[in-house]
Amino acid sequence: MAASADTLIALLHGPDQPGLVAKTAGWIFERGGNILHADQHRDMEQGVFFQRIEWASPPDEDLPSERDAFAAFTASLGMKARILLSGHRPRVALMVSRADHCFHDLILRWKARELRCEICGILSNHPDLGDAAQGYGLPFVHIPVTRGSKPDAEAEQIHRLRQWGAELVVLARYMQILSGPFLETLGAPVINIHHSFLPAFAGARPYHQAHERGVKLIGATAHYVTAILDDGPIIHQDVIRVSHRHGVEDLIRKGRHLEKSVLAQAVNWHLENRVLAYGAKTVVFD
Amino acid sequence: MAASADTLIALLHGPDQPGLVAKTAGWIFERGGNILHADQHRDMEQGVFFQRIEWASPPDEDLPSERDAFAAFTASLGMKARILLSGHRPRVALMVSRADHCFHDLILRWKARELRCEICGILSNHPDLGDAAQGYGLPFVHIPVTRGSKPDAEAEQIHRLRQWGAELVVLARYMQILSGPFLETLGAPVINIHHSFLPAFAGARPYHQAHERGVKLIGATAHYVTAILDDGPIIHQDVIRVSHRHGVEDLIRKGRHLEKSVLAQAVNWHLENRVLAYGAKTVVFD
Amino acid sequence: MAASADTLIALLHGPDQPGLVAKTAGWIFERGGNILHADQHRDMEQGVFFQRIEWASPPDEDLPSERDAFAAFTASLGMKARILLSGHRPRVALMVSRADHCFHDLILRWKARELRCEICGILSNHPDLGDAAQGYGLPFVHIPVTRGSKPDAEAEQIHRLRQWGAELVVLARYMQILSGPFLETLGAPVINIHHSFLPAFAGARPYHQAHERGVKLIGATAHYVTAILDDGPIIHQDVIRVSHRHGVEDLIRKGRHLEKSVLAQAVNWHLENRVLAYGAKTVVFD
Amino acid sequence: MAASADTLIALLHGPDQPGLVAKTAGWIFERGGNILHADQHRDMEQGVFFQRIEWASPPDEDLPSERDAFAAFTASLGMKARILLSGHRPRVALMVSRADHCFHDLILRWKARELRCEICGILSNHPDLGDAAQGYGLPFVHIPVTRGSKPDAEAEQIHRLRQWGAELVVLARYMQILSGPFLETLGAPVINIHHSFLPAFAGARPYHQAHERGVKLIGATAHYVTAILDDGPIIHQDVIRVSHRHGVEDLIRKGRHLEKSVLAQAVNWHLENRVLAYGAKTVVFD
């Protein structure tokens, strides 16, 4: 599924109208582009059209101009577009606390070229993972967060993320709530991994909640972060089976593998421009 | 896993104490029985011991006496036992409304000898499935339930269930809430299939709730019914993947297959004396 | 995902060339049609383009003419098209032996309007399911097959299938091999359910083979039938977990549910014109 | 599920006979031990009894003596026993080639205390992972293997494994076949991860084979290594869904995550003394 060099990947959405598929395909064809993949979706209830379209640019056109021309064209159709050049590798920052499984997993996948991005730095409210980050050759900044210091800490976090040019922030088991103002100021998407099958067991200690309720499956949910805790648009979810034999410690251990794979898949889809959040939901062109 | 003829299957639980495994196994051995399966569990937090043990009775002993003797023995150890004779086929009543998928599925599995029971009758608050029940040769009683008539209707339901000698009641998509007094008076276990991954989306119209929240998996949950809606001990759960392409109608259609398999599995485990409810949870010796 | 009334669903494939997406979408748009879904695939290795496209016909055009015009248009592009009118319900015949689980499952799904087809009749080499077919109001013809009688039996089968106008034949656990000449003469697609995860355990008694090998998952595979046993293009597969505790009888029992769901899904996809067989494989636009 | 300190875990098997459960439980009880878990299995066809039993030793007895006494006792019953002291952490060597995903995954799980062992060293027929091994502080020995040098290389491998005291060897995507004499001389169990759902696609390049056959699920299989390639007793298997959209490269990428989790689970079960190989199969007390 990996795109080859020299393609553009556009994610569009806007009010539905007849002929949108023909118009976008026609525009690309007329300019000498070749569509490699195209996928559409209509939300019939809300009258919204969604499209992900990937095409090889004409050889005589540079990609940024092509991108700008396509953006202008789709705007003229009343649609919003997010367009990725295949050669661009978005800059991604991780935020972590003490747990290291998602941290290692994302970085090793990145090093194995499974994730098309540049990991630009690690922020943490604890110093624990500093050495490991250094071992990977990645910048690590420890910013303690206490109840009183939160506004200052968030300002410092924003400062670092901007300095690094982060286009995506991944909360790889970061155990602090980000404030509404933080998210607004940041202006970049934030993906979180919640260690339950949302909306079940939102909030703190979900494995403890799951154990208490006696569920037979535990889950993990990757979602975009909004100002409301554990309520943002869901990108990916998965579950594994547990039984009465599993104590809370077992759920935590079993959940780790799930958290890693669910978060990595969600980040991967985001980086391949496959995820479009609208309202409380996502369209995922997988 | 099917038990052969002439075995006893006991489900025990009680306060943990040293030597319980040795004592039950020793008792059976000394009387000439042969243990076919034995499975134990300890809830360390609550100090409770659970055991499912199946054994071939000694040839010179009749099963009911053996059962009574074992019950007396385990009582002397401070444990409660539920003991099933392998030849006994518990009488099961179904309660249904209009949806027929779980209804057909359970009856066809029963006819295919997948369920070790006798289906003794069908109660419904709608007449719709009467003909189908008749086609299967099963008693069908239509008892309308309205807000005002509920106490009378429940009395009539109890009457029929007792008449049929129902030892287990299965709510095969029965769309009415059973009252606390009904459950108390009935005195038999009731298994329900809820069409969501509980505790997410309890209550009415779970597929609509799931669609609105934009989840990426939908689930079904089989549980024992208690006086609190959708809160009883969970026996079995499963999920399937959905996407933005699936409307509510698709979730309903996809969910049907899940509901059938989850409910059938839960009923099957119950009938094989594999499920022990304690507190808000179950132990399932699968 | 169910198509609403008055749509056309085309499955296309042919040599890849630039502009195919634009051309088909443009053709539909110019004639006043509205594309509801469109999905494409390119087999890069073989240079083949595949498309499934569903559109609402223009109000002033009748569907059969639209279909013929689109077929002519795509032929002019060097592509082959299979075009379904949404109002058309293909005629489907079942072939069965003694096992009845897939038989009941398909018929109940059909009656529940999950399958967009007309079940036109049942052929069997055994008389066992005759009464059940009659109970469903479906024609049932018993054609015994012995080694010596196979050519005559196949001629009689072809005769009946033609009489019923079968456009699809589903082998719902039909335990005889269909000959090459039968398939050629029939000229209609045949879908089979094989009770293993092909290519593992092709041929007879797959659950016995699986048990002997000690696998930890058992599977089921729905595929188009070709003259080579269990070798046709795979449409759908699924698996479930088993353990050392499960004997062959348990595998058979557990496998039943899997066979039902895998076969029903494959038939459903075929009926919604989502499956394109090419070479030894399928493209499934799900 | 993690055993607490000061327990013994015995895996037994031998000819079935009445009273085995009672006898082992009785022996432990009489000596003042407390059974924490006990699980039995009977292979009815072959008349073999299997048991995994974990107990807290009596406070006045040292574990090695208890182990030896239990071994003598079970030998007197005609059974073979493998007994693990919970405090003992078996020494595990990894053999790798170039692929590093299972290598990192096992080591990180070990560092996160998910695997109860000591990783004692890494052998490789390529130098590629030497730096990474060093980064983890683990001995790494590069032993090239060519057709001509294989006997010498295997002798050197045996030498190193003995030097490290390896009690288990894990082939973490080691791409060379181990000879029968090597396995015999080694005398320790060897676990391999094969990147297909065995017995489908044994041998080389299984993802290429799977892609060519057009399967809809790909798998991974962890098994004990025997002298016959990809034929040893299966410990664990899992699958994930693929479609026509996935090229061979995608199967390889998707398979990596599967290989990691399947191998880690199999190694974990082995280390917890949960796996008993007999004939071509395993009993896994999970």
Describe the protein's architecture and organization.
The structure is a homotetramer of 286-residue chains. Chain A has 8 helices and 13 strands. Chain A starts with 6 loop residues before the first strand and ends with a strand. Chain A has 286 residues and is of the alpha/beta class. The model of chain A has no long low-confidence stretch (mean pLDDT 93). Chain A has a 7-stranded mixed β-sheet with strand order 7-6-5-8-9-10-11, with helices on both faces. Chain A folds into 2 domains: 7-85, ACT domain (Alpha-Beta Plaits); 91-284, Formyl transferase, N-terminal domain (Rossmann fold), CATH 3.40.50.170. Chain A is globular. Chain B binds chain C through residues 1-2, 100-101, 104, 108, 112, 114, 135, 245-247, 249-250, 253, 256-257, 261, 264, and chain C through 1-2, 100-101, 104, 108, 112, 114, 135, 245-247, 249-250, 253, 256-257, 261, 264.
N→C terminal distance of chain A: 9 Å
Q: Percent helix among the residues of chain A?
A: 25-40%
Largest interface chains and counts: C-D, 34 and 33 residues
Could you tell me the mean pLDDT of chain A?
A: 93
Shape of chain A: globular
Subunit arrangement of the protein: homotetramer
Q: Helix count of chain A? A: 8
CATH class designation of the largest domain in chain A: Alpha Beta
